[in-house]
Write a structure and sequence with these properties.
10 helices, 17% strand, alpha/beta
């Protein structure tokens, strides 16, 4: 009996230790260095630094001026988990080039604990919302005018959460968002942790908040879109996304279908719609921003 209890205690301790380690690794991923520059795409740019709203984490980015006369409109990019401002799955600089050629200002920056920015914790949308709001503050100070945001995966959810708090975000493009972080992780954490669902998913979910301070239930895009409405959102998702199922975007769009749009692509992996359909993607995004930002004037 004592031997059996000892084995159970040891197994529980090992599982808990693994869960603590994995939870810590998931919220403290290594930064990816920047391996491209706007110069590689023939783009003029300015290095910029600013602080996140509220907790003042120092963030780094680029301001890309328009090729032609400015529309007095700035599009802010919000990258995904474990990435940086380049959003290499697109790549983001290619889309940014199209937007600057159409007359938009573009801001690309690294969230906390990413790229060249400060901070050492990735919260999958919770604190990154403050970073995006810091980018909005920078734009309002240096290039006042209309503001749109395009976000990818974690950045798409962050864009929705930020727009719910900041009325000066006039329109959002959300590429491949999840709808609620808590339920999503409970169902899909094995994709990220590479561990069996039981016992590790409930252990990691229980341990995460005490060791990181992250309350995953606060990352709730379904609740947030009600505060974005009636401002417009364009959701983009692939039917073949195995990382974040497209039903997440369907649920978000269904909250306010009179002002929210949804483009479901096919054959693309997670955040790969632009790579597979670059011309259609660019045309849809630019038509959305042109129409909806004019609407919001």
């Amino acid at each position: 009996m004592i031997a059996a209890l000892s084995v159970l205690f040891l197994a529980a301790a090992v599982c808990t230790g693994i869960s603590v380690y994995v939870g810590w690794q998931l919220t403290h991923p290594a930064k990816k260095p920047l391996d491209e520059s706007p110069e590689d795409y023939g783009l003029a740019y300015e290095n910029i630094q600013f602080y996140s709203r509220e907790d003042r984490v120092e963030l780094s980015g680029w301001f890309l001026p328009p090729r032609s006369s400015s529309l007095q409109t700035t599009i802010i990019f919000a990258h995904g988990y474990r990435g940086n401002r380049l959003e290499e799955k697109l790549p983001a600089l290619s889309l940014a080039k199209s937007l600057t050629e159409a007359g938009y200002n573009v801001v690309m920056f690294d969230f906390r604990n990413s790229g060249e920015s400060g901070g050492n914790l990735t919260s999958v949308g919770l604190y990154e919302t403050r970073d995006l709001l810091g980018a909005v503050d920078w734009v309002k100070q240096h290039h006042p005018g209309k503001i749109g945001v395009i976000g990818f995966s974690m950045g798409a959810v962050t864009a929705i959460l930020a727009a719910a708090e900041e009325p000066d975000i006039a329109a959002v493009v959300a590429d491949s968002p999840f709808s609620r972080l808590g339920p999503y992780l409970r169902e899909n954490l094995p994709v990220w942790s590479h561990l069996p669902n039981f016992p590790f998913t409930p252990l990691i979910m229980t341990i995460m908040q005490p060791i990181t301070g992250i309350d995953v239930e606060q990352v709730d895009a379904v609740a947030a879109v009600g505060r974005v409405y009636p401002r417009p959102v364009l959701f983009i998702h692939s039917r073949d996304d195995d990382t974040i199922p497209y039903e997440n975007s369907e649920l978000l769009r269904s909250q306010h279908p009179d002002r929210f749009e949804l483009w479901l692509s096919s054959g693309a992996d997670h955040v790969y719609t632009y790579r597979l359909y670059p011309e259609e993607y660019t045309e849809r995004v630019m038509r959305f921003f042109a129409t909806q930002l004019d609407f919001s004037s």
